[in-house]
Amino acid sequence: MKRTEKEGFVEEFRERLQESPSFFLTDFTGLDVKSITVLRDELKKTGAEYLVVKNRLVLRALQNTEFPDLSDHLLGPTGVVLGHDVPIEAAKTVADFAKTHDDRPQFKVAVMDNAVLDAGQIQRLAKLPPRDQLLAMLAGAFEAPMAALASALEGKLHEMVGLMKALQEKREDGEA
Questions:
Q1: Where do the structural domains in the chain lie, given as residue ranges?
Q2: Where are the beta strands (DSSP E) in the chain?
Q3: pTM for this structure?
Q4: Is 37:79 a contact under the CB 8 Å cutoff?
Q5: Segment 67-80, tens digit of pLDDT
Q6: Taking Cα atoms as reference points, which of 38, 1, 43 lies closest to residue 20?
Q7: Percentage of the chain surpassing pLDDT 70?
Q8: Concatenated DSSP letters of 8-46
Q9: pLDDT in tens, 140-157
Q10: Strand pairing class (115-118; 106-112)
Q11: Of 26, 61, 74, 91, which is most buried by a Cβ count within 10 Å?
Q12: Each residue's pLDDT tens digit, 98-122
């Protein structure tokens, strides 16, 4: 790659990093081109992409940005996962792929909203249920206390109606 091509790549890569709400650095040691192509296809379905890049170029792209310093993690073969739409789905896809490919690729580090996450934190993110399921769980958590309150109020209402009927019957019996 010529110098001008490298500079163009660095600028384009910097823009892509800034457009993405998160990105993951992975070590793809042990994966062949065919496997990486399969991983790319699976990530594309989630709205993410997988790039194999030189560490020097990643460092240059991260310079003069608000991203944290990742130079300690840019050792060995590095693949970058750009999670454009749903970063958790991208992490889940990589983790699921690794389960069937001898734990490859391995997460090195992630940046989400300028916060650095280690490999363990990324694995915990990957184990989260899908967004729709999380929203359903949240709705259920909100609905349960409301349903209990409605049930308690309904019980008191029935009790009050019963008391009113008993009072009415007592008065009718007293008048007659």
A1: 3-128, 130-176
A2: 22-27, 48-53, 78-83, 106-112, 115-118
A3: 0.74
A4: no
A5: 998 999 999 999 99
A6: 43
A7: 99
A8: HHHHHHHHHHHHSSEEEEEE-TT--HHHHHHHHHHHHHT
A9: 888 888 888 888 999 999
A10: antiparallel
A11: 91
A12: 999 999 999 999 999 889 999 999 9
CATH number for domain 3-128, candidates 3.30.1830.10, 3.10.690.10, 3.60.10.10, 3.30.70.1730: 3.30.70.1730
Contacts 24+ apart (CB under 8 A), 61-67: 61/10, 61/11, 61/13, 61/14, 61/17, 62/14, 62/17, 65/14, 65/17, 65/18, 66/114, 67/17, 67/111, 67/114
Residue 137 amino acid letter: M
Measuring CA to CA, which residue among 4, 79, 7 is closest to residue 43? 79
What's the pLDDT score for residue 175?
Answer: 67
CA 138 → CA 135, 142, 166, distances in Å?
Answer: 5, 6, 43
For the segment 40-55, the average pLDDT, to the nearest whole number, is: 93
Peptide bond into 21 cis (omega under 30): no
